[in-house]
Amino acid sequence: MVRLGFIIGFIALLGILLSGLAAYRVHDQELTIDRIALARAIDVHASLVQDRLTERELLARVASGLFRTPAVIKPNMLEPLRSAIYAFKTDFVVASWIARLKPTELSAAQAALSSAGFPNASIRNYDDTPLDTTKITEPINVLMDLEPRSEETKALPGRSYDQDGVRGAMLARAMAEKKSVASDPVPLLRPNGPIGVIVAAPVIPEGAAEPAGFITFSYELASLMLTNDDMSLFSVALRDPRATGGELIANDQGIVSARTIAQDGPLPSSTRSVSFGGRDWQLSYFAKTNSARRAEQTAVIVAAIGFAITAMVCGLFGYVAYNNLRLSREIQVRIGFERRLTAVIDELNHRVKNILAVIQSIVTRTLRHGSDIDVARELLIGRIHAMSNVVSLLSESQWQGVKLKGLFEARAIPHADRIAISGPDIAVSARAAQSLSLLFFELASHSDEGLSLVGKHPHITANWTVTGEEPDTVFHFRWEEFNTSEATRRADSDFGLILLDRVAPEALGGTAKRYFTDASYIYELTAPMETVVDMTERDRTEKFSAPVRPVR
């Protein structure tokens, strides 16, 4: 009996020791895995932030390199750069031309701003207070042009930023160093506007020693910081260079706010430095979960199981089972990732081939033998721009469709400001979006070739409706140009006729017709909604874009 008790006690003691060892190993492994996962996520995030910052700084450098300054006082200096600026597809808030004007040029600058239609053409301080130009003896930096022009931004030209503590310091440093420079974080557009940064690139004419002005781009901080959603392992904050002990944070809605760093507050899990505009910026990362506490809780559970069983076999089984589960989970994630990667590559190859085939057809038809080279060049740029716009919209939605109204953007459709659109807010498939984008451009590019007989520009309406009951709903699109006739409207090109009459209807599985009335030109397109929306394509794309999650 004593010997049996001894054996049982020995087995119980051995089981307790093994359970404790298993709990220790679990704690160590969980803590290591969490820390490695957090470190890798932070490294990836910092790398993506640096890539975004480098891309935006490159835009400023390229724009300043392409810029020509025949007359710094012109209020439309950005006009030749508009297509190049939008070709980068960066999310800038405002692009502007700040001219460095001599005192003798201020009167001409005011006259130029007034002729350009800006509401306030006076040369004034950055805060809209009056500026006595008669007392100015040195060149000053004045905002002369910007993009995009809206009701809010039109009030900005004419401001001098030399007395602005943030923008003035940025321009002075850019002029001294003769390279692109970033500003401190500052509210954009208005005092209570979104917090962002501005990068300024000096424009130095050939043979000159001083800049003639500056190309600037402003960006919201939220998009540059790449803030994460609720599923992220960490939250990120940007150390505010304006205030010691302060930092900028962004919530999941993209709203940036400032906060004071408490002396007894939590320390960041890690920090990373990124470079932008000739200066270093520090990103602080705060883990959303306590890895040590989580590891301790997991270890307590394993130990409690081992102690309750008090048996060596059960303790070993728990330890082996935990490691097998972890290994199985890693294998399943790897297999799923490889399958997903192969499917995504196949899908990407298919879509790239389709896009290249469309572009090849556009170039071949547009530059056919005998065509006017100037007209062909404009049409080719416009058509490729329309394709680029729809591809950007599809990329933003992860190729799961595009809102139909988004295809009528002014930067992709000529005369978009005169097109009255109406219709339900539906999302069309990727294939339909590409065909409709080219269709809209082709219709709009021929709508203002000349004035009508009554001396008015054509008024254009574009509307669409969805009729019928599921699953036999039908999409109807109607384009009508008023104040035009067959005599005043330029005839459609060969490519346009093929696109209007055959390519677009066949791509949507529908029919089309075009005709003139007594007072208008009409184009109508009818197609089944199942081809316009294409839920099969959307479900497949959504499946590809879904993140790979481990099996629990």
UniProtKB/TrEMBL annotation:
Q: Which residues cross the membrane?
A: 299-322
Gene Ontology molecular function:
kinase activity
Q: Which domain of life is it from?
A: Bacteria
The stretch of residues making up the signal peptide is none
Keywords assigned by UniProt, alphabetized: ATP-binding, Kinase, Membrane, Nucleotide-binding, Phosphoprotein, Transferase, Transmembrane, Transmembrane helix
Which catalytic reaction applies to this protein? ATP + protein L-histidine = ADP + protein N-phospho-L-histidine
- Coiled-coil stretches, from where to where? none
State its Enzyme Commission number(s).
Answer: 2.7.13.3
Q: Does the keyword Protease apply?
A: no
Principal EC category:
transferase
Which residues are in the CHASE domain? 142-225
Stored Pfam families: CHASE, HWE_HK
Q: Is Transferase among this UniProt entry's keywords?
A: yes
Task: Report the PROSITE patterns cross-referenced here.
Answer: CHASE
InterPro entries noted in UniProt: CHASE_dom, Sig_transdc_His_kinase_HWE
- Name of this chain's protein: histidine kinase
Instruction: State the organism of origin.
Output: Bradyrhizobium iriomotense
